[in-house]
Each structure stands twice: as C-alpha cells, then as structure tokens.
Amino acid sequence: MVHRxxxxxxxxxxxxxxxxxILVPDPGPGEALVDILTCGVCHTDLHYQQGGISDSYPFLLxxxxxxxxxxxxxxxxxxxxxxxxxxxxxxxxxxCRACRRGEAQYCFxxxxxxxxxxxxxxxxxxxxxxxxxxxxKTLVAAGQCTKVDEDVDAAAVGLLGCxxxxxxxxxxxxxxxxxxxxxxxIGCGGVGxxxxxxxxxxxxxxxxxxDIDQRKIDLALSLGATHGVNSRELxxxxxxxxxxxxxxxxxxxxxxGRPETxxxxxxxxxxxxxxxxxxxxxxxxKIELPLLDVFGRGGSLKSSWYGDxxxxxxxxxxxxxxxxxxxxxxxxxxxxxxxGDVQEAFDKMHGGAVLRxxxxx
Length: 361
Ligand SMILES: NC(=O)c1ccc[n+]([C@@H]2O[C@H](COP(=O)([O-])OP(=O)(O)OC[C@H]3O[C@@H](n4cnc5c(N)ncnc54)[C@H](O)[C@@H]3O)[C@@H](O)[C@H]2O)c1
Ligand SMILES: [Zn+2]
Ligand SMILES: [Zn+2]
What we know:
By secondary structure, the chain is of the alpha/beta class. Helix content is 27%, strand content 26%.
C-alpha cells in the first residue's frame, strides 16, 4: 500500500517551500514507517533550500523528529508498531572500517530506507539527512528509530534528533569538555546553546557565549553561560582571552561554521586546547591560517558530525537527564507551528527571533 500524505518540499535551489502530497510506500525489509508527531526546524533544512548541501532536488525537508512507528518490515526487531521513537541520521552498519575499529559514531555506511518516497508524478524525493520528517508519515531504515519513553513532551525530546544532540555532543563527545574547563561557544542558536548545556553537564566552570545577536547572548546567559560576548561590539578573541586569565579557553566550539568564526575559535583557545567545528560551512568557504600557528598552538582541531553521538546510547541517556531536571530541553522550544509554517520559521530563525520552532502534527 502507498500512503498519500502532506509534506514540505523544496523543488529547486532557493525555491519557496511547498506543501505537497507525497507518496510513502509501506515498509520493506529493514524499514519502518513512522507517523510523525513533531519535527524541529534546524538550520540545516535552510542549507538544503539554499543549495548548501547538495543539488539532489526535490528535497523532502525535516529531520529533527519524533513519531510513532506505524509499520515495520518483515525482518525488523529493534522497534515494534506503536513505539514512540526519536528519528536519527546515524543508523550504524556495524561492519564498515569505522564500526570495526569500535568507533561506530563515525560509521561510514549508515542506513536509510531503500525504497524511495516520491511526488505524485513519481519524481523521487531526497529526504533531508535520510529522514524527511516535515511530513505526516515518513519511511526510514528501522535503525533510524530510537525508542524512548512516552511520558515526555515529544516536541522537546525530538530536538535530540539533530541540533541539540549535535551541540551537546560537540561539547561532551567531541570536545571532551571536563570538570573545571573553560569553554567558549561561538554562535548561540539551538546548536550553540545546546553546546553550552552540554558543557554545563560536563562540569565546565567558565562558559562564554559569543554571538552577534544580543538576544541570543541573553538567552545563553539564562541557560548556563557564565559570560556573554557580543562579537559585533568586541573582538571575541580578545574578550575570550580576557575572561580566561589571558590564555584562551580550553575548548572553543564554532557553532556557526564560517571562515571568520573558525579563525576566531582557532585563536581564542588556549595552547594545546581544542577547537570543535559543529556549524556546517558551505562549499564556497575557505580558510587560510599560518601553518606555523597551527603547529605552534598545538592541541586539536576537530569536527563534530552529529555530536559524535551514538543514538541508541545517547538519546535515552539525555531523555533521562531531561526527566531528572538536569537538562532543560523545554527551553529550546520557542514556538509550536504547523506544517505550512516552515518557511516563516526559516525567516524567524534568520531574524534571530527563535531558538527552535517545532512543527507539531
Ligand atoms: N555538525 C552537525 O552535525 C550539525 C547538526 C545540526 C546543525 N548543524 C549546523 O550548526 C549550525 C547552527 O545551527 P542552528 O540550528 O543553531 O542555527 P541558528 O541559525 O539557530 O543559530 C546560528 C547562530 O549563530 C549566530 N551567528 C551568525 N553569524 C555569526 C557570527 N559571525 N559570529 C557569531 N555568531 C553568529 C546567529 O546570530 C545565531 O544565533 C548550522 O550551520 C547548522 O547547519 C550542524
Ligand atoms: Zn559502520
Ligand atoms: Zn539538523
């Protein structure tokens, strides 16, 4: 059976989003059909619209989602019909060279649904990050479903499916932030503020929020940052050094992903410190750094794909911390909107008005 459902599509580079009827097949081997409950609006969806990710239009957007499994393929055992799940874009294969080294968080062969969802005329859709959850139903690989408790707000925990996990993981998993560390986070959108939350969980004692938008800095200060730096007004490198006894931070997280923010991160960290790039650059961006500074400053320059998370390990753990009151996921849900409101949510994200708009179906 094919399901006809409403979904948010972008047909060409910079084309306006359209609400369309799409066709979703029943799950085959290794697949699960999921009735979407909530889907957060992540900056990466906007990158897809703007052509920053690939040219495989039309895209079915949305990838930060919760849902209820409504069908499974014949061989699927990790989830059952009726399970509440967070969707993930890291269904690890267990057999690639990363998995065989015991580093499944880098899995180079993650699974997505094999069958294609299409437009009504049969045109195949490219689901954002292999998910495509601005839709009433979507088809994923069963491993993309992580079962979680049902007695929590779906809109809040669904954010763990992408941006919030990426931010928390950038601090905890990639940056290896530890007790007493100093951390600076450049860019305080959903991802950056999640990196601040992750740094708090890890026991960092100096947490510096940097943004060009004072509203985001104020929000960051209310959600765990100990200091704020407006980089429209101050040189962030100088400011971060001044707040860390002249040294620079142990870990600097670039949650913007532009040449200028990466360069700031590079120079704002202490000697032998760590830079974590979690913001996603676009294909045209380049950086130039004196090689002697790369050598002379030591430490590590790391990138954080999805916060180096393992969904089956990290989602249930973070849902537990949320239920215990140690991780305030509710604070990330600025507004709840409908499926037809995603373009407007992009505009609000661009205008700096929201941390996360969450589409609720
Ligand atoms: N690595 C991953 O796995 C992963 C996962 C999800 C999102 N991302 C990426 O993370 C980035 C942030 O996503 P988001 O959803 O938080 O976006 P967002 O638009 O909500 O937030 C971006 C923030 O950066 C600030 N900013 C912009 N330019 C700046 C500058 N020059 N200096 C300082 N601050 C600046 C903005 O004011 C805003 O507060 C995006 O590039 C997104 O694609 C990466
Ligand atoms: Zn693998
Ligand atoms: Zn995302």
